[in-house]
Every structure is written in structure tokens, then in C-alpha cells.
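Figure S7 source data.
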Amino acid sequence: MANDEGLIYEYVWIVIVASIVAGMAASLAYYGIALDLNPACNATPIDVTTLTEEFQPGVKQIAPGVYQVNILAGQFFWNPNKIVLEDPVRIEFRITSKDVVHGFEIVGTNVNVMVFPGYVAEFVWEPPKDAQGKYLIICHEYCGIGHQYMQAELEIKRSNTLLSQGDITNGSNTEDVGEFSKVKYLKFNGVIVSEG
Ligand SMILES: [Cu+2]
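C-alpha cells for the predicted copper (II) ion complex:
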């Protein structure tokens, strides 16, 4: 008889655990379907294949000190993975993913953006005048078995003119770059999701 009693408790626990799991699944479905709370913006996703084919990774200088940087993320790379900018004042980033969710972070700065497949994340970063040297770019969103190898490098070069004018106060990127809140806005597929 003791065994039967034990079995009843087993069934009770099965029901409790199954209800918790069903409740969580139902709330996820409710938020996703009924409330339409999918990525935290109302941008419409673009077909990943089309987007990836049309997206041109690379660096383009569009005015003195103004750069457009297009970056394609994938398992497990950033393309380009070496970016060199001379005296950047304004950097316009456009980043997308060809497969899963990645996270774009320039270590030591406040540049930190989620990269979703089907969405182009756009933002402008105005690096502080004392930002120079090599910055490590990492993926901060676990994206698979090679996640930890997903690195790139951003090098900011300052010309001698600036140096002699004394604009560079720090000259090192081993510490915080000093001035933060320099990210101007964040857009997904052209829709603004935050403004700085
Ligand atoms: Cu990753």
C-alpha cells in the first residue's frame, strides 16, 4: 500500500510540473502572438537571404571624419574583422546577421547592440577625441560552439595635427574612453528604437 501512496505523489508532482511548464509556454505564446511583443521594436523583418545578399560589408569614408561601417555577422565571424579609421568624428554603423542572434560590443566603450537576422541595426557613434588605438570587438550573445572566437578589431588612428593641438588627453584605450553616451540613436530596419 505504501508504494501506491508514493505513486499518487508522483502523479501529483507530474501534474504540478506539467502545469508550470504549460503556463510558461502559454504566457510566451500570449506575449508573442496576442500582444505581438516580438523583437523590441515594430520594424518589419526582411528575408534573411535577400538581406544578406544585398548587404555590402565594408568601410566607406563619406566626408572628412565621417565613416559608414557595414558589418555582417555570422557563426562565427564579423565581416570585416579589421576596421581602421583615421580621425573619426562620426561613425555610422549598420550591422546585420546572416544566421542567429549576435551581440556587437566594442569593449571599453558604450557601444553594445543586439544583432538580429532579418534586421539591420543602425546607429551612430561619435567616439571621444581621446579614443585611439586598438579596440576589441566581441560577440556578447552566445551564438553557438565557436562564440568565443567571434572577435574583430577596430583601430582608431589620430593624425599628428590633432596630437600637436593637444586634443588627445588620454592616448590609451586600456581604461574607459572617458566620455560616454555618444551613441546617437538605434534603429532596426529604419525604425528608431532608442535615442541618445
Ligand atoms: Cu556569439
